[in-house]
Amino acid sequence: MTPVRVLDTQRLSTVAHEYERDILQFYRDLLAAPGEQRIRHEVEKAPYEEIRLDAAGNVFTRIGSGSHKIMLHAQGGAAGAAGAAGIVYAGRLIHELGMYDDFTLWLTTPAPTDVRVLEEGGIRPDAVLLAQPTNLCIQMREAAAEGFLSESHPLVQAAIATYETLFELPPIVTQSPSHAALVGIPAVAFGAGEDGGTPQAELVALRHLLKAAQFYAAFPIMYVDAMNHQ
Protein backbone atom coordinates (compact mmCIF):
# COMPACT_ATOMS: atom_id res chain seq x y z
CA MET A 1 0.00 0.00 0.00
CA THR A 2 1.19 3.49 -0.81
CA PRO A 3 2.22 5.50 2.27
CA VAL A 4 -0.70 7.67 3.31
CA ARG A 5 -0.32 11.45 3.17
CA VAL A 6 -1.37 13.23 6.34
CA LEU A 7 -4.43 15.27 5.40
CA ASP A 8 -6.66 17.46 7.50
CA THR A 9 -9.69 15.41 6.54
CA GLN A 10 -11.89 17.10 9.12
CA ARG A 11 -11.16 20.52 7.67
CA LEU A 12 -11.73 19.23 4.13
CA SER A 13 -15.10 17.77 5.15
CA THR A 14 -16.09 20.96 6.97
CA VAL A 15 -15.34 23.22 4.02
CA ALA A 16 -17.03 20.82 1.58
CA HIS A 17 -20.19 20.93 3.70
CA GLU A 18 -20.08 24.73 3.69
CA TYR A 19 -20.55 24.49 -0.07
CA GLU A 20 -23.38 21.95 0.06
CA ARG A 21 -26.15 24.34 -1.04
CA ASP A 22 -24.04 25.72 -3.91
CA ILE A 23 -22.90 22.35 -5.21
CA LEU A 24 -26.42 20.93 -5.12
CA GLN A 25 -27.80 23.93 -7.01
CA PHE A 26 -25.03 23.69 -9.58
CA TYR A 27 -25.77 19.99 -10.04
CA ARG A 28 -29.49 20.64 -10.52
CA ASP A 29 -28.78 23.44 -12.98
CA LEU A 30 -26.62 21.10 -15.08
CA LEU A 31 -29.35 18.46 -15.04
CA ALA A 32 -31.91 20.98 -16.22
CA ALA A 33 -29.77 22.69 -18.87
CA PRO A 34 -26.33 21.17 -19.49
CA GLY A 35 -23.95 23.57 -21.20
CA GLU A 36 -20.57 25.22 -21.13
CA GLN A 37 -21.92 28.65 -20.17
CA ARG A 38 -23.21 27.44 -16.80
CA ILE A 39 -19.98 25.52 -16.18
CA ARG A 40 -17.81 28.48 -17.09
CA HIS A 41 -19.83 30.77 -14.85
CA GLU A 42 -19.15 28.42 -11.94
CA VAL A 43 -15.44 27.89 -12.57
CA GLU A 44 -14.89 31.65 -12.79
CA LYS A 45 -15.90 31.95 -9.13
CA ALA A 46 -12.57 30.36 -8.14
CA PRO A 47 -9.10 31.70 -9.05
CA TYR A 48 -8.06 28.93 -11.43
CA GLU A 49 -4.69 29.57 -13.02
CA GLU A 50 -6.00 29.02 -16.53
CA ILE A 51 -9.42 28.66 -18.15
CA ARG A 52 -9.84 27.63 -21.77
CA LEU A 53 -12.86 27.07 -23.97
CA ASP A 54 -12.41 25.27 -27.27
CA ALA A 55 -14.60 25.36 -30.39
CA ALA A 56 -16.44 22.19 -29.35
CA GLY A 57 -17.57 23.75 -26.06
CA ASN A 58 -15.13 21.86 -23.81
CA VAL A 59 -14.10 23.84 -20.74
CA PHE A 60 -10.51 23.29 -19.55
CA THR A 61 -9.32 24.66 -16.22
CA ARG A 62 -5.84 24.28 -14.77
CA ILE A 63 -4.53 24.19 -11.22
CA GLY A 64 -0.78 24.06 -10.56
CA SER A 65 2.19 23.58 -12.84
CA GLY A 66 3.99 20.58 -11.36
CA SER A 67 5.62 17.63 -13.09
CA HIS A 68 2.80 15.09 -12.55
CA LYS A 69 0.00 15.79 -15.04
CA ILE A 70 -3.44 14.64 -13.96
CA MET A 71 -6.85 15.11 -15.57
CA LEU A 72 -10.24 15.07 -13.87
CA HIS A 73 -12.62 14.24 -16.70
CA ALA A 74 -16.42 14.69 -16.58
CA GLN A 75 -18.89 13.59 -19.23
CA GLY A 76 -21.04 16.07 -21.05
CA GLY A 77 -24.79 16.46 -20.77
CA ALA A 78 -27.05 15.46 -17.90
CA ALA A 79 -25.19 12.15 -17.48
CA GLY A 80 -22.11 14.08 -16.41
CA ALA A 81 -23.85 16.57 -14.11
CA ALA A 82 -22.73 15.01 -10.83
CA GLY A 83 -19.17 14.57 -12.09
CA ALA A 84 -18.93 18.13 -13.37
CA ALA A 85 -20.29 19.53 -10.12
CA GLY A 86 -17.84 17.43 -8.12
CA ILE A 87 -14.70 18.35 -10.01
CA VAL A 88 -15.49 22.08 -10.24
CA TYR A 89 -15.96 22.25 -6.47
CA ALA A 90 -12.89 20.08 -5.94
CA GLY A 91 -10.91 22.85 -7.59
CA ARG A 92 -12.34 25.36 -5.15
CA LEU A 93 -11.49 23.09 -2.21
CA ILE A 94 -7.90 22.64 -3.42
CA HIS A 95 -7.44 26.38 -3.66
CA GLU A 96 -9.16 27.28 -0.39
CA LEU A 97 -7.27 24.65 1.63
CA GLY A 98 -3.94 25.11 -0.14
CA MET A 99 -3.83 21.45 -1.23
CA TYR A 100 -1.06 21.94 -3.76
CA ASP A 101 1.88 19.70 -4.62
CA ASP A 102 4.06 18.73 -7.59
CA PHE A 103 1.11 18.33 -9.95
CA THR A 104 -0.57 20.02 -12.87
CA LEU A 105 -4.28 19.31 -12.63
CA TRP A 106 -6.58 19.80 -15.61
CA LEU A 107 -10.33 19.74 -14.98
CA THR A 108 -12.30 19.15 -18.17
CA THR A 109 -16.08 19.48 -18.41
CA PRO A 110 -16.81 17.77 -20.67
CA ALA A 111 -13.55 16.33 -21.96
CA PRO A 112 -12.88 15.11 -25.51
CA THR A 113 -12.10 11.42 -25.94
CA ASP A 114 -9.61 12.05 -28.72
CA VAL A 115 -6.07 12.44 -27.40
CA ARG A 116 -5.16 14.53 -30.44
CA VAL A 117 -7.52 17.28 -29.27
CA LEU A 118 -5.60 17.48 -26.01
CA GLU A 119 -2.18 17.32 -27.60
CA GLU A 120 -3.05 20.14 -29.98
CA GLY A 121 -3.77 22.25 -26.91
CA GLY A 122 -0.54 21.22 -25.20
CA ILE A 123 -2.30 18.90 -22.74
CA ARG A 124 -1.21 15.29 -22.34
CA PRO A 125 -2.06 13.88 -18.89
CA ASP A 126 -0.15 11.02 -17.31
CA ALA A 127 -3.32 9.69 -15.71
CA VAL A 128 -7.07 10.34 -15.79
CA LEU A 129 -9.64 10.21 -13.01
CA LEU A 130 -13.05 9.82 -14.63
CA ALA A 131 -15.76 11.61 -12.67
CA GLN A 132 -18.52 9.15 -13.55
CA PRO A 133 -21.33 7.48 -11.56
CA THR A 134 -19.81 4.45 -9.77
CA ASN A 135 -21.81 4.49 -6.52
CA LEU A 136 -18.60 5.70 -4.82
CA CYS A 137 -16.71 2.59 -5.90
CA ILE A 138 -13.31 2.72 -7.60
CA GLN A 139 -13.39 1.27 -11.10
CA MET A 140 -10.15 0.29 -12.80
CA ARG A 141 -10.15 1.00 -16.51
CA GLU A 142 -7.98 0.06 -19.47
CA ALA A 143 -4.50 1.35 -20.19
CA ALA A 144 -4.09 0.92 -23.97
CA ALA A 145 -3.01 -2.56 -25.03
CA GLU A 146 -2.14 -3.65 -21.51
CA GLY A 147 -5.80 -4.26 -20.66
CA PHE A 148 -7.23 -3.37 -17.27
CA LEU A 149 -5.10 -1.75 -14.63
CA SER A 150 -4.23 -3.86 -11.58
CA GLU A 151 -4.51 -2.82 -7.94
CA SER A 152 -0.72 -2.50 -7.82
CA HIS A 153 -0.75 0.30 -10.40
CA PRO A 154 0.18 3.64 -8.74
CA LEU A 155 -2.97 5.27 -10.09
CA VAL A 156 -5.15 2.64 -8.42
CA GLN A 157 -3.05 2.77 -5.27
CA ALA A 158 -3.56 6.52 -5.13
CA ALA A 159 -7.32 6.12 -5.48
CA ILE A 160 -7.43 3.49 -2.74
CA ALA A 161 -5.26 5.59 -0.42
CA THR A 162 -7.49 8.62 -1.05
CA TYR A 163 -10.64 6.69 -0.16
CA GLU A 164 -9.17 5.07 2.95
CA THR A 165 -7.72 8.35 4.21
CA LEU A 166 -10.94 10.30 3.76
CA PHE A 167 -13.55 7.75 4.76
CA GLU A 168 -11.59 5.35 7.02
CA LEU A 169 -13.02 2.33 5.22
CA PRO A 170 -11.67 0.04 2.49
CA PRO A 171 -13.16 0.90 -0.92
CA ILE A 172 -14.88 -1.47 -3.30
CA VAL A 173 -12.55 -1.83 -6.29
CA THR A 174 -13.82 -3.31 -9.55
CA GLN A 175 -12.97 -3.46 -13.24
CA SER A 176 -15.20 -1.88 -15.85
CA PRO A 177 -14.78 -1.15 -19.58
CA SER A 178 -14.43 2.52 -20.35
CA HIS A 179 -16.39 4.37 -23.00
CA ALA A 180 -14.86 7.73 -22.17
CA ALA A 181 -11.23 7.19 -21.16
CA LEU A 182 -8.53 8.65 -23.36
CA VAL A 183 -6.82 5.99 -25.43
CA GLY A 184 -3.39 5.05 -24.10
CA ILE A 185 -3.70 6.88 -20.77
CA PRO A 186 -4.23 4.97 -17.49
CA ALA A 187 -7.61 5.73 -15.96
CA VAL A 188 -9.77 4.99 -12.96
CA ALA A 189 -13.36 6.08 -12.38
CA PHE A 190 -15.06 7.30 -9.22
CA GLY A 191 -18.21 9.26 -8.65
CA ALA A 192 -21.61 9.88 -7.14
CA GLY A 193 -24.70 8.11 -8.41
CA GLU A 194 -25.52 4.60 -9.49
CA ASP A 195 -23.38 3.13 -12.25
CA GLY A 196 -25.61 3.06 -15.32
CA GLY A 197 -28.48 4.69 -13.47
CA THR A 198 -30.75 7.52 -14.58
CA PRO A 199 -29.19 10.89 -13.70
CA GLN A 200 -32.06 12.28 -11.65
CA ALA A 201 -31.40 14.80 -8.87
CA GLU A 202 -33.29 12.78 -6.29
CA LEU A 203 -31.23 9.67 -7.07
CA VAL A 204 -27.90 11.29 -6.23
CA ALA A 205 -27.75 12.04 -2.52
CA LEU A 206 -26.09 15.24 -1.40
CA ARG A 207 -23.72 13.22 0.78
CA HIS A 208 -22.51 11.39 -2.34
CA LEU A 209 -21.86 14.67 -4.14
CA LEU A 210 -19.89 16.02 -1.19
CA LYS A 211 -17.88 12.82 -0.78
CA ALA A 212 -17.02 12.77 -4.47
CA ALA A 213 -15.89 16.40 -4.37
CA GLN A 214 -13.63 15.66 -1.39
CA PHE A 215 -12.20 12.61 -3.17
CA TYR A 216 -11.40 14.64 -6.30
CA ALA A 217 -9.77 17.37 -4.20
CA ALA A 218 -7.54 14.98 -2.22
CA PHE A 219 -6.64 12.66 -5.09
CA PRO A 220 -3.91 14.77 -6.80
CA ILE A 221 -1.58 14.91 -3.80
CA MET A 222 -2.17 11.22 -3.10
CA TYR A 223 -1.24 10.49 -6.71
CA VAL A 224 2.01 12.43 -6.33
CA ASP A 225 2.80 10.34 -3.23
CA ALA A 226 2.05 7.13 -5.10
CA MET A 227 4.32 8.09 -7.97
CA ASN A 228 7.12 9.12 -5.59
CA HIS A 229 6.98 5.78 -3.77
CA GLN A 230 6.59 3.37 -6.70
Description:
By secondary structure, the protein is α/β, with parallel strands linked by helices. It has helices at residues 9-18, 20-32, 36-43, 81-97, 115-120, 154-167, 206-228, and strands spanning 50-53, 59-63, 68-74, 103-109, 127-131, 138-140, 173-175, 187-189. The N and C termini lie close together (10 Å). It is globular. It has a single domain (9-228), classed as Aminopeptidase (3-Layer(aba) Sandwich).
Q: Which short descriptors sum up this protein?
A:
230 residues; alpha/beta; Aminopeptidase; eight-stranded mixed β-sheet; globular
What's this, in brief?
By secondary structure, the chain is an alpha/beta fold.
Task: Indicate the topology.
Elements: H1 9-18, H2 20-32, H3 36-43, E1 50-53, E2 59-63, E3 68-74, H4 81-97, E4 103-109, H5 115-120, E5 127-131, E6 138-140, H6 154-167, E7 173-175, E8 187-189, H7 206-228
Parallel strand pairs: 3-4, 3-5, 5-8, 6-7
Antiparallel strand pairs: 1-2, 2-4, 6-8
Helix pairs in contact: 1-7, 2-4, 4-7, 6-7
